[in-house]
Write a structure and sequence with these properties.
It is a single chain. This protein is mainly beta. The protein contains one helix and five strands, in the order E-E-E-E-E-H. The two termini are about 20 Å apart.
Length: about 70
C-alpha cells in the first residue's frame, strides 16, 4: 500500500500543495538560508539525470519528525 504526504511548495507567487509518495523521499536537508524551509530530495532523477529536489515551506524538524514516527 502506498503512503503519501502532502507538502507545501512555494512557487514564485503562491504556495501550492503537492502529494509525494513517501517511498520516493530520499534525503531531507535544512535550508541554509531560511529556517522555515527545508529541501526534500527524491529517489528519482529528472529527464536530464539531475536529482529532483523540492523546496518545502515547512521547517526541517517538522518534516523530519513525520518520517521518524
Amino acid at each position: 500500500m502506498n503512503k503519501f504526504i502532502e507538502l507545501p511548495i512555494a512557487d514564485e507567487e503562491e504556495v501550492k500543495s503537492v502529494l509525494v509518495n513517501v517511498s520516493t523521499v530520499g534525503r531531507i536537508f535544512p535550508d541554509p538560508q531560511n529556517t522555515r524551509k527545508c529541501i526534500v530530495e527524491l529517489n528519482y532523477h529528472s529527464i536530464n539525470d539531475a536529482p529532483v529536489c523540492l523546496e518545502i515551506n515547512l521547517p526541517y524538524e517538522t518534516v523530519r519528525s513525520y518520517f521518524m514516527s
